């Protein structure tokens, strides 16, 4: 094995020396199973995120060396790692699913992150665990590339998320709809504890374990709540608030998670588990991104209320600790207001409005209605909105409006809405040259469209990983114009119309 320097500054150390520390491993044994990852034959480096690596003081270029590839495939375990799989349960598609757990994810431990706060490293696809049920403990290259790219894209959009550090691959075949090759994606987060981690102990009627877990989460991730009169109520309120805000941010960029089961809801309010996700293209408020979700439980329009439902599931689980139902209810009531406020803030920014008027909601609703009726591309519409002019001569406006207006089939519906919007901007004396750049900082030009991921995946299946790096570089600067990369902002090509994503991963 070739030892490699891993830090951009300081002394070179090997993967074996990674200063890992695993606070979750110190919880009682019924919270996890300590076990080794299962090696994969002849692993190879696929891609690494420089930005994610920098968070834990690693140099992404060093991660391609043999010793790091071995560690991040699970073929070698650093001396200070305490690998484990965590147990959790959860509601899947609204139904209690009983015990689940890390069926293919193995936590190695945490590295010091910004300010010294620990950031855990978890290998997804690293082999069987006692919680694998019918699964094979593996992840395929296809889904690992999607998870890697989208984690980093969502982070660049400023939305709370788990991160992706590195992907390694192996030609060992795994069966999905067809035989695919395996991969391991190393994810990073302060914690991977889920709503379902709490539900697990509630449904097993183990209030002591419930308390141990809640105290662990508060001590490590919400220390400011420790001395509150009812810290468990405050924990529920804070998680509810973070969840509501995160989902408001998803809605504002047209992100659809696809599997908002309670075992995929992070106790830190992070976007967790990138499976059959999608970014809205032709706008349909009821769009369902996950082919497996036939009822549309997790459609775009349903995400906000499902987020609230999931917080109720967490509230139910925490009730033995909180005490009074009224207190839990108070904490859950935070949701509506937090979601509405965040949405309002984001929509004002997306439309370049710096004041608030009573009828703004009517303007926003009318906008979503014409977007829906005309199936306009979500990202292109909002990006184009910054080019709608206010202070140009009236006679020039039709020509200036044309690129945006042409996105609509019913041009007169656009004209009517644009007139209201323009009048609204004029009432606050909006200046084009100031408003447009501010709007460009919140309306991304580049999002991870399914077809873009598919192009990178198709090349990767032939061992050409260059498009993963190229695409990541574009998605890391989603708000920048990047004229040289304009092709990455284009509408999906015809071949992409048959693309379907499902729970198969
Ligand atoms: N191939 C597999 N082998 C073993 N277990 C699996 C496999 N795929 C999914 N599971 C398990 O099934 C449950 C639900 O799967 P889900 O797709 O939500 O999670 P995941 O994508 O594996 O992981 P995570 O939520 O950690 O991102 C989890 O307990 C997960 O570990
Ligand atoms: Mg999951």
From TrEMBL:
Gene symbol of the encoding locus: ydiU
The name this protein goes by in its record: Protein nucleotidyltransferase YdiU
Task performed by this protein: Nucleotidyltransferase involved in the post-translational modification of proteins. It can catalyze the addition of adenosine monophosphate (AMP) or uridine monophosphate (UMP) to a protein, resulting in modifications known as AMPylation and UMPylation.
Keywords: ATP-binding, Magnesium, Manganese, Metal-binding, Nucleotide-binding, Nucleotidyltransferase, Transferase
InterPro entries membership: SelO
Transit peptide listed as a keyword: no
Positions annotated as active site in the UniProt record: 263 (proton acceptor)
MF-aspect GO terms: AMPylase activity; ATP binding; magnesium ion binding; manganese ion binding
Amino acids binding Mg(2+): 264, 273
């Amino acid at each position: 094995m070739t030892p490699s320097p891993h830090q951009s500054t300081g002394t070179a150390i090997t993967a074996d020396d990674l200063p890992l520390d695993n606070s979750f491993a110190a919880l009682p044994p019924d919270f996890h199973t300590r076990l080794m990852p299962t090696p994969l034959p002849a692993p190879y480096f696929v891609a690494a995120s420089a930005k994610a690596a920098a968070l834990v003081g690693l140099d992404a270029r060093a991660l391609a060396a043999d010793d790091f590839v071995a560690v991040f495939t699970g073929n070698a375990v650093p001396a200070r790692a305490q690998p484990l799989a965590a147990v959790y349960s959860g509601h899947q598609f609204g139904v209690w699913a009983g015990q689940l757990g890390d069926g293919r994810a193995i936590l190695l431990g945490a590295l010091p992150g910004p300010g010294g706060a620990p950031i855990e490293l978890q290998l997804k696809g690293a082999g069987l665990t006692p919680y694998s049920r019918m699964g094979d403990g593996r992840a395929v290259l296809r889904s690992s590339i999607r998870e890697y790219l989208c984690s980093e894209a969502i982070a660049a959009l400023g939305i709370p998320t788990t991160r992706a550090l590195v992907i390694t691959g192996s030609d060992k075949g795994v069966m999905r709809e067809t035989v695919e090759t395996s991969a391991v994606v190393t994810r990073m987060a302060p914690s991977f504890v889920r709503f379902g981690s709490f539900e697990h102990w509630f449904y097993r009627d183990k209030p002591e374990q419930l308390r141990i877990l809640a105290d662990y989460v508060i001590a490590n991730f919400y220390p400011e709540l420790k001395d509150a009169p009812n810290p468990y109520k405050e924990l529920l309120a804070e998680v509810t608030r973070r969840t509501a805000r995160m989902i408001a941010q998803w809605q504002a960029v047209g992100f659809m998670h696809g599997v908002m089961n309670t075992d995929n809801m992070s106790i830190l309010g992070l976007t967790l588990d990138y499976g059959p996700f999608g970014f809205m293209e032709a706008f349909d408020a009821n769009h369902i991104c996950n082919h497996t979700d036939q009822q549309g439980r997790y459609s775009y329009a349903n995400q906000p209320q499902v987020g609230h439902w999931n917080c109720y599931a967490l509230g139910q689980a925490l009730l033995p600790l909180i005490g009074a139902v009224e207190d839990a209810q108070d904490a859950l009531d935070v949701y509506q207001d937090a979601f509405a406020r965040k949405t309002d803030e984001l929509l004002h920014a997306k439309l370049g409005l710096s004041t608030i008027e009573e009828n703004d909601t009517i303007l926003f609703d009318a906008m979503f209605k014409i977007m829906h009726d005309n199936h306009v591309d979500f990202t292109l519409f909002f990006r184009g909105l910054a080019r709608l002019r206010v202070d140009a001569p009236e006679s020039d406006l039709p020509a200036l409006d044309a690129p945006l207006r042409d996105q609509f089939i019913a041009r007169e519906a656009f004209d009517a809405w644009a007139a209201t919007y323009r009048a609204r901007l004029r009432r606050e004396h909006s200046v084009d040259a100031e408003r447009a750049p501010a709007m460009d900082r919140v309306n991304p030009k580049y999002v991870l469209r399914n077809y873009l991921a598919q192009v990178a995946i198709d090349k990767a299946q032939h061992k050409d990983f260059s498009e993963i790096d190229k695409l990541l570089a574009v998605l890391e600067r989603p708000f920048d114009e990047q004229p040289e990369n304009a092709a990455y902002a284009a509408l999906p090509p015809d071949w992409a119309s048959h693309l379907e994503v499902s729970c198969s991963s």
